[in-house]
Specification:
- This protein is mainly beta and 279 residues long.
- It folds into 2 domains: 30 residues; 246 residues, no CATH class.
- The protein is 9% helix and 20% strand.
- The strands form 2 sheets. A 6-stranded antiparallel beta sheet has the order 1-10-3-4-9-8, with no helix packed on it.
- The longest helix is centred in the N-terminal third of the chain and has 26 residues.
- The chain is elongated, with a radius of gyration of 27 Å.
- It starts with a helix and ends in a 5-residue tail after the last strand.
């Protein structure tokens, strides 16, 4: 009798354990939140999922300035490289579930034709965030054209106290990182027949990407780096710049008697936790 009661007790305990396990499995059978990253390279309206109350702006940058063109007559001086746009890194912001945000991607600055300056980069913005209005990241400045035997100066980066463009033959200076804000970097100055172009554009200590290279004697200056990559290379004498700049980076300057290259368009990468998004 005692053995039978013990056996029945064991059965009851086993049944209870099975029920508890089944209940636990049922409790965790629904969709679980997953980390979702969106990479925006063209102006778009983005819908915030219904279960998302905050997003993290992982990386964002304004457009880079275009590289300046080289001197047309006598072919003795190259154009300066463009500066990079303002950046953001790791900024957490509130979001309204099921709402829309508008991300405007700043265009890269236009290339400088022969004897022409590069265009300034456009601003990248994120609108529709509660309590913040619109976040705007300005673009970098375009490089100057080579003229009168003197290489064009590099364009300065975007933002307050940015990296500055190098004078003729000088490197661009670095941008600075302050909390989540990153100022743009400067492009290097163009060279002339008596001096090489600035060897490198500005960069960031936290983002040691390989920098572009200057175009040498009579060549164009290098575009400033962005947090997404290197600025465009400066072109050699009698050559147009052709190496594409990374997103938000400055375009390379044209060599003497050559055109510069366009700056890199801006970019926004952000992420959030959601159980509703499947891809």
């Amino acid at each position: 009798m005692i053995a039978r009661k013990a056996f029945l007790g064991l059965l009851a305990s086993a049944a209870l354990m099975l029920a508890t396990t089944a209940q636990a499995q049922m409790s965790f059978s629904g969709p679980q939140p997953r980390w979702v990253v969106r990479d925006v390279i063209a102006t778009a309206t983005q819908v915030i999922p219904a279960d998302v109350t905050s997003i993290r702006i992982l990386q964002a940058q304004g457009g880079g300035g275009g590289g300046g063109g080289g001197q047309a007559s006598a072919s003795t001086a190259g154009g300066g490289g463009g500066g990079s746009g303002v950046g953001l890194l790791g900024l957490d912001v509130a979001a309204t579930p099921s709402s829309s945000i508008t991300i405007t991607i700043g265009a890269g600055g236009t290339l400088g034709a022969i004897a022409g300056a590069g265009g300034n980069g456009g601003a990248t913005s994120i609108a529709g965030l509660p309590g913040r209005g619109t976040i705007t990241l300005s673009g970098g400045a375009g490089g100057s054209a080579g003229a009168a035997g003197v290489g064009g100066a590099g364009g300065s980066g975007g933002g307050l106290s940015p990296g500055t463009g190098g004078a003729a033959g000088a490197n661009g200076t670095n941008g600075s990182v302050s909390g989540v804000s990153i100022t743009g970097t400067g492009g290097s100055g163009g060279g002339n027949t008596g001096a090489s172009a600035g060897g490198v554009g500005g960069s960031f200590a936290a983002y040691p990407y390989a920098r572009g290279t200057g175009g040498g004697t009579g060549g164009g200056g290098t575009g400033g780096n962005s947090m997404f990559g290197a600025g465009g290379d400066g072109a050699a004498q009698n050559t147009s710049a052709s190496v594409a700049a990374a997103a938000g980076a400055g375009g390379g300057g044209g060599g003497a008697n050559g055109a510069g290259a366009a700056g890199g368009s801006g970019r926004v990468v952000y992420g959030f936790w959601s159980a509703l998004v499947t891809q």
